[in-house]
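Researcher: Re-running this chain for the archive, since the previous output was lost when a drive failed. Same request as before.
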Amino acid sequence: MRRLSPPPTSKLVIFVVIAFFLLWWVPFSHVLPEGFPLRFGTYRTFQGSMIAMWAIVALGLNILTGYNGQISLGHSAFVAIGGYTAAILMVDYGWPFWTTIIIGGLIAGGIGFLIGVPALRLTGPYLAIATLGLALATPQILKKYDGLTHGTQGINVRPEVPASPDFIEDWFGIKLSNDEWIYFLALFIALLMLVLALNIVRSRVGRAFVAIRDSEIAAQAMGISVPRYKIIAFGISAFYGGIAGGTYAQVVGYVSPESFNFLLSINFLTTIVVGGLASILGSVLGATGLIVVPELPGIVSFIPGAGLPDELSWAFYGAALILVMIFAPYGLAGLFHRLVRVGPARVAGVLTPVQGAWLSWRERRRAPPASPGQTGAGSEDRSSGDQPGTE
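Model: Regenerated C-alpha coordinates:
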Protein backbone atom coordinates (compact mmCIF):
# COMPACT_ATOMS: atom_id res chain seq x y z
CA MET A 1 0.00 0.00 0.00
CA ARG A 2 1.23 3.50 -0.81
CA ARG A 3 2.92 5.19 2.12
CA LEU A 4 1.71 8.59 3.21
CA SER A 5 4.03 11.57 3.01
CA PRO A 6 3.60 15.14 4.24
CA PRO A 7 1.64 17.32 1.79
CA PRO A 8 3.55 19.99 -0.17
CA THR A 9 2.15 22.74 2.06
CA SER A 10 3.52 21.05 5.17
CA LYS A 11 6.92 20.64 3.54
CA LEU A 12 6.95 24.34 2.66
CA VAL A 13 6.04 25.30 6.21
CA ILE A 14 8.78 23.06 7.62
CA PHE A 15 11.32 24.57 5.21
CA VAL A 16 10.33 28.15 6.14
CA VAL A 17 10.53 27.40 9.87
CA ILE A 18 13.97 25.79 9.54
CA ALA A 19 15.25 28.64 7.36
CA PHE A 20 13.97 31.23 9.83
CA PHE A 21 15.58 29.38 12.74
CA LEU A 22 18.97 29.02 11.04
CA LEU A 23 19.17 32.40 9.32
CA TRP A 24 17.67 34.66 11.99
CA TRP A 25 16.91 33.04 15.33
CA VAL A 26 20.30 31.44 15.99
CA PRO A 27 22.47 34.46 15.10
CA PHE A 28 20.14 37.39 15.92
CA SER A 29 17.73 36.36 18.67
CA HIS A 30 20.03 38.02 21.21
CA VAL A 31 18.35 41.32 20.31
CA LEU A 32 15.14 40.09 21.98
CA PRO A 33 14.40 41.20 25.57
CA GLU A 34 16.35 39.53 28.36
CA GLY A 35 14.57 36.45 29.67
CA PHE A 36 12.71 35.76 26.39
CA PRO A 37 12.18 31.97 25.98
CA LEU A 38 14.84 30.30 23.85
CA ARG A 39 16.70 33.56 23.42
CA PHE A 40 20.13 32.67 22.04
CA GLY A 41 23.23 34.53 23.06
CA THR A 42 26.73 34.54 21.68
CA TYR A 43 27.51 31.12 23.11
CA ARG A 44 24.49 29.53 21.39
CA THR A 45 25.64 31.08 18.11
CA PHE A 46 29.04 29.47 18.67
CA GLN A 47 27.29 26.14 19.30
CA GLY A 48 25.45 26.55 16.00
CA SER A 49 28.82 26.92 14.30
CA MET A 50 30.05 23.76 16.04
CA ILE A 51 26.99 21.81 14.88
CA ALA A 52 27.59 22.88 11.28
CA MET A 53 31.25 21.92 11.57
CA TRP A 54 30.66 18.45 13.06
CA ALA A 55 27.87 17.85 10.55
CA ILE A 56 30.54 18.07 7.83
CA VAL A 57 32.59 15.34 9.53
CA ALA A 58 29.47 13.20 10.02
CA LEU A 59 28.54 13.52 6.35
CA GLY A 60 31.95 12.26 5.26
CA LEU A 61 32.08 9.46 7.83
CA ASN A 62 28.58 8.35 6.87
CA ILE A 63 29.67 8.04 3.24
CA LEU A 64 32.47 5.74 4.37
CA THR A 65 30.70 3.75 7.08
CA GLY A 66 26.99 4.07 6.35
CA TYR A 67 27.08 3.83 2.56
CA ASN A 68 30.30 1.87 1.94
CA GLY A 69 30.45 -0.30 5.08
CA GLN A 70 34.00 0.60 6.22
CA ILE A 71 34.32 1.38 9.93
CA SER A 72 36.77 4.14 10.80
CA LEU A 73 37.88 5.32 14.24
CA GLY A 74 40.58 7.62 12.89
CA HIS A 75 38.70 10.61 11.58
CA SER A 76 40.03 12.90 14.27
CA ALA A 77 43.37 12.56 12.43
CA PHE A 78 41.89 13.91 9.18
CA VAL A 79 40.24 16.76 11.04
CA ALA A 80 43.61 17.54 12.66
CA ILE A 81 45.32 17.54 9.26
CA GLY A 82 42.79 20.00 7.86
CA GLY A 83 42.88 22.20 10.96
CA TYR A 84 46.66 22.38 11.17
CA THR A 85 47.02 22.96 7.44
CA ALA A 86 44.65 25.92 7.61
CA ALA A 87 46.28 27.30 10.77
CA ILE A 88 49.86 27.03 9.46
CA LEU A 89 49.01 28.58 6.10
CA MET A 90 47.12 31.46 7.72
CA VAL A 91 49.52 32.26 10.58
CA ASP A 92 52.94 31.44 9.09
CA TYR A 93 52.33 32.22 5.43
CA GLY A 94 49.45 34.70 5.42
CA TRP A 95 47.17 32.80 3.05
CA PRO A 96 43.50 33.84 2.72
CA PHE A 97 41.24 31.82 5.00
CA TRP A 98 39.05 30.35 2.27
CA THR A 99 42.02 28.92 0.36
CA THR A 100 43.39 27.29 3.53
CA ILE A 101 40.12 25.42 4.07
CA ILE A 102 40.23 24.02 0.53
CA ILE A 103 43.92 23.11 0.75
CA GLY A 104 43.37 21.43 4.11
CA GLY A 105 40.57 19.33 2.64
CA LEU A 106 42.65 18.32 -0.39
CA ILE A 107 45.68 17.31 1.71
CA ALA A 108 43.51 15.29 4.09
CA GLY A 109 41.75 13.68 1.13
CA GLY A 110 45.08 12.76 -0.46
CA ILE A 111 46.29 11.15 2.77
CA GLY A 112 42.94 9.35 2.99
CA PHE A 113 43.52 7.89 -0.49
CA LEU A 114 46.97 6.67 0.56
CA ILE A 115 45.65 5.12 3.78
CA GLY A 116 42.81 3.50 1.86
CA VAL A 117 45.25 1.33 -0.13
CA PRO A 118 46.62 -0.76 2.78
CA ALA A 119 43.17 -0.63 4.41
CA LEU A 120 41.85 -2.81 1.57
CA ARG A 121 43.20 -5.86 3.34
CA LEU A 122 41.23 -5.10 6.50
CA THR A 123 37.51 -5.21 7.21
CA GLY A 124 35.18 -4.81 10.16
CA PRO A 125 36.76 -4.48 13.60
CA TYR A 126 40.28 -4.99 12.21
CA LEU A 127 39.94 -1.87 10.06
CA ALA A 128 38.47 0.01 13.03
CA ILE A 129 41.47 -0.86 15.23
CA ALA A 130 43.93 0.10 12.49
CA THR A 131 42.32 3.51 12.01
CA LEU A 132 42.19 3.95 15.79
CA GLY A 133 45.98 3.64 15.73
CA LEU A 134 46.07 6.54 13.29
CA ALA A 135 43.97 8.64 15.68
CA LEU A 136 46.28 7.77 18.59
CA ALA A 137 49.47 8.54 16.65
CA THR A 138 48.46 11.88 15.14
CA PRO A 139 48.61 14.02 18.35
CA GLN A 140 52.06 12.61 19.14
CA ILE A 141 53.32 13.45 15.64
CA LEU A 142 52.00 16.99 16.00
CA LYS A 143 53.93 17.37 19.26
CA LYS A 144 57.11 15.88 17.80
CA TYR A 145 57.56 18.24 14.85
CA ASP A 146 57.13 21.47 16.79
CA GLY A 147 59.09 23.48 14.22
CA LEU A 148 56.15 23.13 11.85
CA THR A 149 53.18 22.59 14.18
CA HIS A 150 54.33 24.80 17.11
CA GLY A 151 54.33 21.77 19.38
CA THR A 152 52.20 21.48 22.50
CA GLN A 153 51.45 25.21 22.65
CA GLY A 154 49.32 24.97 19.53
CA ILE A 155 48.56 27.75 17.06
CA ASN A 156 46.40 30.77 17.83
CA VAL A 157 44.45 31.51 14.67
CA ARG A 158 42.01 34.06 16.11
CA PRO A 159 43.97 37.20 15.08
CA GLU A 160 44.07 35.92 11.49
CA VAL A 161 40.34 35.15 11.21
CA PRO A 162 38.88 37.91 9.02
CA ALA A 163 35.99 40.12 10.06
CA SER A 164 32.67 40.28 8.27
CA PRO A 165 33.12 41.30 4.60
CA ASP A 166 32.03 44.80 3.66
CA PHE A 167 29.72 43.58 0.87
CA ILE A 168 27.35 42.06 3.45
CA GLU A 169 26.77 45.45 5.02
CA ASP A 170 26.53 47.11 1.58
CA TRP A 171 24.04 44.59 0.19
CA PHE A 172 21.94 43.72 3.24
CA GLY A 173 22.53 46.68 5.53
CA ILE A 174 23.66 44.34 8.35
CA LYS A 175 26.90 44.71 10.27
CA LEU A 176 27.76 41.23 11.47
CA SER A 177 29.77 40.64 14.60
CA ASN A 178 32.71 38.24 14.43
CA ASP A 179 30.68 35.38 15.97
CA GLU A 180 27.77 35.95 13.58
CA TRP A 181 30.08 36.04 10.57
CA ILE A 182 31.82 32.80 11.63
CA TYR A 183 28.41 31.16 12.13
CA PHE A 184 27.24 32.05 8.62
CA LEU A 185 30.59 30.93 7.20
CA ALA A 186 30.33 27.52 8.89
CA LEU A 187 26.67 27.20 7.87
CA PHE A 188 27.48 28.04 4.24
CA ILE A 189 30.30 25.48 4.10
CA ALA A 190 28.09 22.83 5.73
CA LEU A 191 25.31 23.44 3.20
CA LEU A 192 27.76 23.14 0.30
CA MET A 193 29.12 19.86 1.65
CA LEU A 194 25.59 18.58 2.28
CA VAL A 195 24.59 19.26 -1.33
CA LEU A 196 27.78 17.56 -2.51
CA ALA A 197 27.05 14.52 -0.32
CA LEU A 198 23.51 14.27 -1.68
CA ASN A 199 24.84 14.26 -5.23
CA ILE A 200 27.49 11.66 -4.40
CA VAL A 201 25.14 9.14 -2.78
CA ARG A 202 22.61 9.52 -5.61
CA SER A 203 25.21 9.13 -8.34
CA ARG A 204 26.73 6.05 -9.90
CA VAL A 205 29.55 6.23 -7.35
CA GLY A 206 27.08 6.24 -4.46
CA ARG A 207 25.22 3.24 -5.86
CA ALA A 208 28.53 1.41 -6.17
CA PHE A 209 29.27 2.21 -2.51
CA VAL A 210 25.96 0.69 -1.43
CA ALA A 211 26.45 -2.38 -3.60
CA ILE A 212 29.85 -3.02 -2.03
CA ARG A 213 28.44 -2.54 1.45
CA ASP A 214 25.65 -5.05 0.83
CA SER A 215 27.78 -7.72 -0.86
CA GLU A 216 31.28 -7.42 -2.28
CA ILE A 217 30.87 -10.66 -4.24
CA ALA A 218 27.66 -9.44 -5.89
CA ALA A 219 29.27 -6.06 -6.61
CA GLN A 220 32.20 -7.75 -8.35
CA ALA A 221 29.78 -9.88 -10.37
CA MET A 222 28.14 -6.66 -11.60
CA GLY A 223 31.48 -5.33 -12.79
CA ILE A 224 32.19 -2.93 -9.92
CA SER A 225 35.86 -2.52 -8.98
CA VAL A 226 35.67 -3.07 -5.23
CA PRO A 227 39.23 -1.89 -4.39
CA ARG A 228 38.89 1.30 -6.43
CA TYR A 229 35.58 2.35 -4.90
CA LYS A 230 36.74 1.53 -1.38
CA ILE A 231 39.72 3.82 -1.85
CA ILE A 232 37.48 6.52 -3.32
CA ALA A 233 35.17 6.29 -0.31
CA PHE A 234 38.10 6.64 2.07
CA GLY A 235 39.44 9.64 0.17
CA ILE A 236 36.07 11.41 0.02
CA SER A 237 35.49 10.83 3.72
CA ALA A 238 38.97 12.15 4.59
CA PHE A 239 38.34 15.20 2.37
CA TYR A 240 35.22 15.98 4.40
CA GLY A 241 37.24 15.64 7.58
CA GLY A 242 39.86 18.04 6.26
CA ILE A 243 37.24 20.62 5.30
CA ALA A 244 35.76 20.34 8.79
CA GLY A 245 39.24 20.79 10.29
CA GLY A 246 39.82 23.95 8.28
CA THR A 247 36.44 25.23 9.43
CA TYR A 248 37.39 24.31 13.01
CA ALA A 249 40.41 26.60 12.80
CA GLN A 250 38.11 29.50 11.83
CA VAL A 251 35.37 28.75 14.37
CA VAL A 252 37.47 27.99 17.44
CA GLY A 253 40.45 30.14 16.47
CA TYR A 254 42.96 27.75 18.06
CA VAL A 255 44.36 24.33 17.28
CA SER A 256 46.51 22.08 19.45
CA PRO A 257 47.32 18.34 19.57
CA GLU A 258 44.92 17.87 22.51
CA SER A 259 42.07 19.22 20.38
CA PHE A 260 42.09 16.08 18.21
CA ASN A 261 42.39 13.10 20.56
CA PHE A 262 40.97 9.66 19.85
CA LEU A 263 37.83 10.37 21.92
CA LEU A 264 36.84 12.78 19.18
CA SER A 265 36.87 9.90 16.68
CA ILE A 266 34.62 7.85 18.95
CA ASN A 267 32.24 10.80 19.20
CA PHE A 268 32.15 11.02 15.40
CA LEU A 269 31.22 7.35 15.05
CA THR A 270 28.62 7.73 17.79
CA THR A 271 27.20 10.72 15.93
CA ILE A 272 26.39 8.81 12.74
CA VAL A 273 25.08 5.74 14.60
CA VAL A 274 22.73 7.84 16.73
CA GLY A 275 21.72 10.04 13.82
CA GLY A 276 21.25 7.15 11.41
CA LEU A 277 23.65 5.19 9.21
CA ALA A 278 23.39 5.73 5.46
CA SER A 279 21.34 8.88 6.01
CA ILE A 280 22.23 12.47 5.14
CA LEU A 281 19.56 13.71 7.53
CA GLY A 282 20.93 11.40 10.20
CA SER A 283 24.36 13.04 9.93
CA VAL A 284 22.85 16.46 10.67
CA LEU A 285 20.63 15.18 13.48
CA GLY A 286 23.51 13.27 15.06
CA ALA A 287 25.79 16.32 14.99
CA THR A 288 23.02 18.38 16.56
CA GLY A 289 22.58 15.83 19.33
CA LEU A 290 26.34 15.69 19.97
CA ILE A 291 26.35 19.43 20.79
CA VAL A 292 22.86 20.01 22.19
CA VAL A 293 22.23 17.04 24.50
CA PRO A 294 25.18 17.69 26.86
CA GLU A 295 23.99 21.31 27.06
CA LEU A 296 20.42 20.50 28.09
CA PRO A 297 20.88 21.83 31.66
CA GLY A 298 21.72 25.26 30.28
CA ILE A 299 19.16 25.20 27.46
CA VAL A 300 16.17 24.49 29.73
CA SER A 301 17.34 26.91 32.41
CA PHE A 302 14.73 29.47 31.32
CA ILE A 303 11.92 27.14 32.49
CA PRO A 304 10.97 27.86 36.12
CA GLY A 305 11.99 24.99 38.36
CA ALA A 306 13.90 23.23 35.56
CA GLY A 307 17.36 24.01 36.87
CA LEU A 308 19.67 21.03 36.37
CA PRO A 309 23.22 20.62 37.66
CA ASP A 310 25.92 20.98 35.04
CA GLU A 311 27.60 17.82 36.36
CA LEU A 312 24.80 15.78 34.78
CA SER A 313 25.47 17.03 31.24
CA TRP A 314 27.23 13.91 29.98
CA ALA A 315 24.93 11.72 32.05
CA PHE A 316 22.07 13.07 29.91
CA TYR A 317 24.13 12.33 26.82
CA GLY A 318 24.75 8.73 27.91
CA ALA A 319 21.08 8.24 28.79
CA ALA A 320 20.07 9.65 25.41
CA LEU A 321 22.37 7.17 23.63
CA ILE A 322 20.80 4.26 25.50
CA LEU A 323 17.26 5.42 24.75
CA VAL A 324 18.00 5.93 21.05
CA MET A 325 19.56 2.48 20.70
CA ILE A 326 16.54 0.86 22.39
CA PHE A 327 13.64 2.79 20.85
CA ALA A 328 15.20 3.99 17.56
CA PRO A 329 17.63 1.30 16.36
CA TYR A 330 17.81 2.97 12.94
CA GLY A 331 18.78 6.29 14.47
CA LEU A 332 17.03 9.60 14.78
CA ALA A 333 16.57 9.82 11.02
CA GLY A 334 14.81 6.44 10.99
CA LEU A 335 12.57 7.57 13.82
CA PHE A 336 11.77 10.78 11.97
CA HIS A 337 10.79 8.94 8.77
CA ARG A 338 8.79 6.46 10.79
CA LEU A 339 6.77 9.25 12.39
CA VAL A 340 6.02 11.22 9.23
CA ARG A 341 5.66 8.36 6.73
CA VAL A 342 3.61 5.58 8.30
CA GLY A 343 1.07 3.92 6.02
CA PRO A 344 -2.47 3.15 7.25
CA ALA A 345 -1.94 -0.60 7.00
CA ARG A 346 1.15 -0.38 9.23
CA VAL A 347 -0.32 1.69 12.02
CA ALA A 348 -0.96 -1.37 14.17
CA GLY A 349 2.66 -2.38 13.83
CA VAL A 350 4.00 0.83 15.32
CA LEU A 351 1.53 1.16 18.19
CA THR A 352 2.99 0.66 21.61
CA PRO A 353 1.32 -1.79 24.00
CA VAL A 354 -0.12 1.12 25.98
CA GLN A 355 -1.70 2.63 22.88
CA GLY A 356 -3.07 -0.75 21.82
CA ALA A 357 -4.64 -1.34 25.24
CA TRP A 358 -6.20 2.12 25.18
CA LEU A 359 -7.70 1.55 21.72
CA SER A 360 -9.07 -1.83 22.82
CA TRP A 361 -10.68 -0.24 25.88
CA ARG A 362 -12.20 2.50 23.75
CA GLU A 363 -13.70 -0.02 21.32
CA ARG A 364 -15.23 -1.99 24.18
CA ARG A 365 -16.85 1.16 25.51
CA ARG A 366 -18.31 2.02 22.10
CA ALA A 367 -19.68 -1.51 21.50
CA PRO A 368 -23.41 -1.89 22.33
CA PRO A 369 -24.07 -3.96 25.47
CA ALA A 370 -25.20 -7.55 24.80
CA SER A 371 -28.41 -8.89 26.36
CA PRO A 372 -28.01 -11.57 29.08
CA GLY A 373 -29.64 -14.26 26.93
CA GLN A 374 -27.29 -13.59 24.00
CA THR A 375 -24.01 -13.40 25.90
CA GLY A 376 -23.11 -17.10 25.66
CA ALA A 377 -24.24 -17.54 22.06
CA GLY A 378 -22.56 -14.37 20.98
CA SER A 379 -19.32 -15.42 22.64
CA GLU A 380 -19.41 -18.80 20.89
CA ASP A 381 -20.12 -17.17 17.54
CA ARG A 382 -17.26 -14.72 17.97
CA SER A 383 -14.81 -17.38 19.11
CA SER A 384 -15.65 -19.65 16.18
CA GLY A 385 -15.72 -16.78 13.72
CA ASP A 386 -12.22 -15.62 14.72
CA GLN A 387 -10.70 -18.86 13.46
CA PRO A 388 -10.05 -18.78 9.69
CA GLY A 389 -11.44 -21.68 7.73
CA THR A 390 -14.11 -22.73 10.27
CA GLU A 391 -17.71 -23.09 9.26
